[in-house]
Amino acid sequence: MDEEDIAAVVEVLKSDFLTTGPVVGRFEAALAKATDTSHAVVVSSGTAALHAAYHVSGLLPGDEVVTTPLTFAATANAALYLGASVRFVDIQADTGNLDPERIESALSKRTKLIVAVDFAGHPADYDAITAIGRRHDIRVIADAAHSLGARYRGRSVGSLADLTTVSFHPVKPITSGEGGAVLGNHGEWARGIESFRNHGITRDAARLQRDEGPWFYEMQALGFNYRLTDIQCALGLSQLKKLGRFLARRRHIAERYTAAFSHCGALLTPVVRPDVEPGWHLYVVRLAGDPALRRPFFERLRALGLAVQVHYIPVYYHPYYASLGFVRGLCPVAEDFYRRAISLPLFPLMTDAEVDRVINRVLVAVDELL
Ligand SMILES: *Cc1c(COP(=O)(O)O)cnc(C)c1O
What we know:
The protein has helices spanning about 5-15, 20-35, 45-55, 75-80, 100-105, 125-135, 190-195, 210, 230-240, 245-260, 295-305, 320-325, 330-340, 350-370; strands at about 40-45, 65, 85-90, 110-115, 140-145, 150, 155, 165, 180-185, 200, 220, 265-270, 275, 285, 340-345. By secondary structure, it is an alpha/beta fold. The strands form 4 sheets. A 7-stranded mixed beta sheet has the order 1-9-8-5-4-2-3, with helices on both faces. The chain has a 3-stranded antiparallel beta sheet with strand order 7-6-13, with no helix packed on it. α4 links the parallel β2 and β3 (about 85-90). The radius of gyration is 22 Å and the shape is globular. The structure holds pyridoxal-5'-phosphate (PLP).
């Protein structure tokens, strides 16, 4: 947060609208412009964005969603909200993204959606994935919670899949405190999400006087309160202006990490596929050797004062998914990725001195343990 962010929020607090006011549309227009898409609809979280995107894609009870297990649980949970089931498909070993070569054999008559996740900010292989979607008449959704501002083959995240969802949680590329959005072209879906985020209520002006009276509104479908406030939109709008700077700083830090660790045989550094500009939401190194050393290595890094983390526990390892019948061994590449992964500190305000400290401490722990 800088002074501009704070001033933008204060301005809304002094204005007439705290929610459903003019800043919502302004944030949406700016998001669409920044992502080269025609439409953006903001909602109260990235999870709500997934729920809304699956809903307007017609996902119904009994349908199936194909997605990756190497993600935050929300990607799969949103399918369960709608009574659909999830089929987890394994990842590419290098990027950690859904592997297009494994998708087709996982499709069934019930498959309604393919949902790719841009793990760590590296866009998935959308040309291959959307070709499969077209061949089978299945819609492709990008969970781009990690990758706002990233690019793939000269195109922006937001325009790579049929619909794209993003998150504005504080750890994500930009924040509105909590928040999310659905992005895409050909905006016929946008009205559906506007309705879904507001209890399915419309206030069709043409009907105001004719049918009932000036108080008229009607609920045409079952929806939710997934609105994003003007307070949050003002913060998001202010943050969006800095996205380019944030991304440049993240890229610089990632490049310094890769320069420092790529010669260190004990660690695998993140891969960038040709013609991809990742968003560098995360910088995930993996142990090249015995994965049993991940835990002592992780604990040593924490003891050295580094706020390391692990992304992600495969979704179907969680007890709730186990209770649905998922068993370990389902996606061996994702499981191996998880066993070896450690995310290093990475955020735009990190100073060069802090980056140096991370590098030195990681190399100390590598010397001690790996
Ligand atoms: C953060 C995240 C979400 C959920 O976003 P929220 O805004 O926290 O609801 C969904 N998918 C992925 C991959 C995420 O990282």
